[in-house]
Write a structure and sequence with these properties.
This protein is an all-beta fold. The protein has strands at residues 14-19, 26-28, 34-37, 44-45, 56-60, 66-70, 78-79, 82-83, 88-89, 96-98, 101-106. It has no helices and eleven strands.
Amino acid sequence: ARGGRGGGRNTPTKLVVSEGSLTGTTVALQGQTITLGRAHDSTIVLDDDYASSRHARIYPDRDGRWIVEDLGSTNGTYLDRTRLTTPTPIPLEAPIRIGKTVIELRK
C-alpha cells in the first residue's frame, strides 16, 4: 500500500539557503509560493545589491513539482549555472543562485 500524499519519491519538504548571508535559513514547503528579493515582504528577503526587489519565485505546479521563475530581474536567476529564461522545474538539491545567495530544495 502506498503511504500518504507525496509518496516521498524525491519530494522536497524544505528550501534551504546554503550560501550567502542567510545561510542556514530554511522554509518549509507547504504548497505555497515562495518569493525571493529585496522587497521586505518577500518570503526570503535578500539583502544583496545583485538581487532585484521582486527577483524570483518558487511555486508548485499541478504535478507537485517545484518550479523556479525569474521575475525579470536585472542580474538573473541561475539554476545550476544556467541562467533561467522560462519557469523551470527544480531538481532536488540543485543550486539556485541569486547574487551571493544559493538556495536548494531538500527532502
